[in-house]
Write a structure and sequence with these properties.
This protein is an alpha/beta fold. It folds into two domains: about 200 residues, P-loop containing nucleotide triphosphate hydrolases (Rossmann fold, 3-Layer(aba) Sandwich), CATH 3.40.50; about 120 residues. It has 17 helices and five strands. The chain has a five-stranded parallel beta sheet with strand order 2-3-4-1-5, sandwiched between helices. Helix 5 packs parallel to helix 6.
């Protein structure tokens, strides 16, 4: 069995169980013709698929890619002729003919995003105005899978966001999967496995990618993004097991949301509940879902800090807000702060399940008022 201290698999954060499954399949020459990598957004399903593809296309034909051969060098830019990436593109939905070509500006954007994906496997390709995986893309797969290619070896088709296939595209792919060809492999990824046709799922080997731990995310932020340990651990705690979410949080001004938590609580607990709608319409209206999630994340940290401070510990995240936290704890020392924390966790869960945002925010406000004002 091969022993390696560094390999292309190291680019995948965590997912050690998944790496072992795939490497074992390669070593024993038992690579399935179709895989479905599924798990929550940002946990690395796409990263796993790309590194698996890189290994399959390496001329070394080992469980670890060499990084030096012609195939590996082309894969470094996601430009290998035997690799095809499929993802949602504009046009081609169920109501329009699918013989349209992409506009030049869309082609340029596709190239730009593929280049970014090659640099960072945790970058999510999202072309503007793209809703579906076009049937045209699947028909191209069928054509290319049966044709001889410019280079010998395996062919790998990676389908990101496989749940975005409409019925026509899904049925077309199903026919391809029902007639597997030698050395042709299909790697599908999704964060919404239940949205895929059961017939497609049944023809794939399922590989679930688990949520990342805070330690795994923090280590990634330190080594890949140059973050100091304190900031990395703070962001990792907020990321909810998603490295992609952690990267998004790095771009946001978290100080703004941390400051807004204090005014949000004051408005929510004021004599007039309507005040919160006047003061925080940007979070309540539903126009800015990601901003509302950031606010709830900061509120979650605030409640956690309040509990820690009440118990006599100084191990709080919001060190610079210690004064406000102490005032809050002094005022609500007899309140059930653990239930407040649970209410915020529930709101975050509903938000991530795409429940109507104003309803989520109203619900958490009502719950916090009820708990903190309880006699």
């Amino acid at each position: 069995m091969e022993s390696v201290t560094h390999s292309n698999w190291d680019t995948v954060i965590g997912q050690e169980r998944v790496k072992k499954i795939l490497q074992t399949a390669i070593r024993h020459n038992r690579v399935a013709h179709a895989y479905l990598f599924w798990g929550n957004d940002g946990v690395g399903t796409e990263s796993v698929a790309l590194e698996f593809a890189r290994t399959l296309l390496c001329e070394k034909q080992s469980a670890v890619s060499c990084g030096e051969c012609s195939g590996c060098k082309k894969m470094a830019h996601l430009q290998h002729p035997n690799l095809k990436l499929i993802f949602p593109l504009p046009g081609g939905d169920a109501d329009k003919p699918d013989d349209d070509s992409l506009e030049n500006d869309v082609v340029d954007e596709v190239r730009r995003q593929i280049s970014e994906k090659a640099r960072n496997a945790y970058f999510h390709i999202e072309i503007p105005k793209a809703k579906f995986i076009r049937i045209k893309s699947i028909r191209e797969i069928k054509k290319e899978s049966s044709m001889s290619s410019a280079e010998a070896g395996k062919k790998v088709f990676v389908i990101f966001d496989a749940d975005a296939m409409n019925d026509a595209a899904a049925n077309s792919l199903l026919k391809i999967l029902e007639e597997p060809l030698d050395d042709v492999h299909f790697l599908l990824t999704t964060s919404r496995k239940d949205a895929l046709k059961q017939t497609i799922i049944s023809r794939c080997q399922l590989v679930q990618c688990s949520m990342l731990t805070d330690d795994e995310i923090a280590a990634g932020l330190i080594t890949r993004e140059g973050q100091d340990e304190t900031q990395a651990r703070f962001v990792a705690r907020l990321a909810g097991g998603s490295y992609t979410r952690a990267l998004e949080l790095l771009k946001d001004d978290l100080r703004t949301y941390r400051s807004d938590v204090v005014t949000f609580l004051r408005s929510a607990l004021s004599a007039s509940p309507a005040k919160i709608f006047d003061d925080h319409d940007e979070y309540i209206s539903g126009k800015k879902r990601s901003e509302a999630e950031n606010l709830l994340l900061m509120l979650h940290v605030w409640m956690r800090d309040a509990i820690v401070l009440r118990e006599g510990s100084d191990a709080i995240f919001n060190i610079d807000q210690r004064g406000d936290l102490k005032s809050f704890v002094d005022k609500f020392s007899r309140s059930d702060l653990e239930s407040c924390l649970s209410a915020v966790e529930r709101a975050l869960e509903l938000l991530r399940r795409n429940v109507y945002l104003p309803l989520v925010m109203l619900s958490v406000t009502v719950n916090l008022r009820r708990i903190l004002h309880a006699k």
